[in-house]
Amino acid sequence: MENRRFDLTGKTALITGAGRGIGLAIARALAEHGADLVLVARHAEQLDAASRQIEAATGRTARLLPFDLARIDEVNGLFDDAVEAAGRIDVLVNCAGTTVRTPSDEVSLADFKRVMDVNLTAALALSQSFCRHCRDGGKPGRIINIGSLACHAARPTIVPYTCSKMGLLGLTRTLAVEWAPHHINVNAIGPGYIATELTAPLRKDPEFDRWVLAKTPLGRWGTPQDLVGVAVLLASKAGEFITGQIFYVDGGWTALI
Description:
Elements: E1 12-16, H1 21-32, E2 36-41, H2 44-58, E3 63-66, H3 75-86, E4 91-94, H4 109-137, E5 141-146, H5 159-179, E6 184-191, H6 200-203, H7 206-215, H8 228-235, E7 246-249
Parallel strand pairs: 1-2, 1-4, 2-3, 4-5, 5-6, 6-7
Helix pairs in contact: 1-2, 1-8, 3-4, 4-5
């Protein structure tokens, strides 16, 4: 009986950054709990592979929308395309992200703008479209923003990323407060260091790997699968009284002095 509170049958989730890594893991988990999917990523071949994996694991076929979220002026059109393809969107997962690693006194304004556009401005634009969609349809909605340890603290050479993720936490809390009357819950997940294709170069650096393990009380890198339980909670009826929160899934990193 209680498991029904995690059932997403009849719901449709739009997930950005869904071609691999964390986005793909969350998309698959939502499908396993009954959700229909609209997947967004830059590369069509990644989306095709992700869709085949999800269908093989769950039997569910996802709708695919290749799109670069740096094209900020077209993001509202992307949401309209998702609604046209699926009929409705009940859950929005803003997972797409990018970064550059450059000393702060050398980072270009163009790089700073691109990271902010993809990680933060696109999340706002999609959330605005989602709010209007839910409000005008008279139905509740869930927004899940994928943050970072950079929502909590900073480290050198990633100033655009850190600013975007701290901004994403501010966006999460602001929208949660403002859109609660529309029954739209807005929360964030803050992953610790997660083993993905994007972090492979960091894991291959012995000094950096030792630093991560020393800072993580559970003594390992996380995996995308470590994040899916919180995502399902926040998307489902079980999480209906949770809003404006960030859940750090970090192996204890933020608890350590």
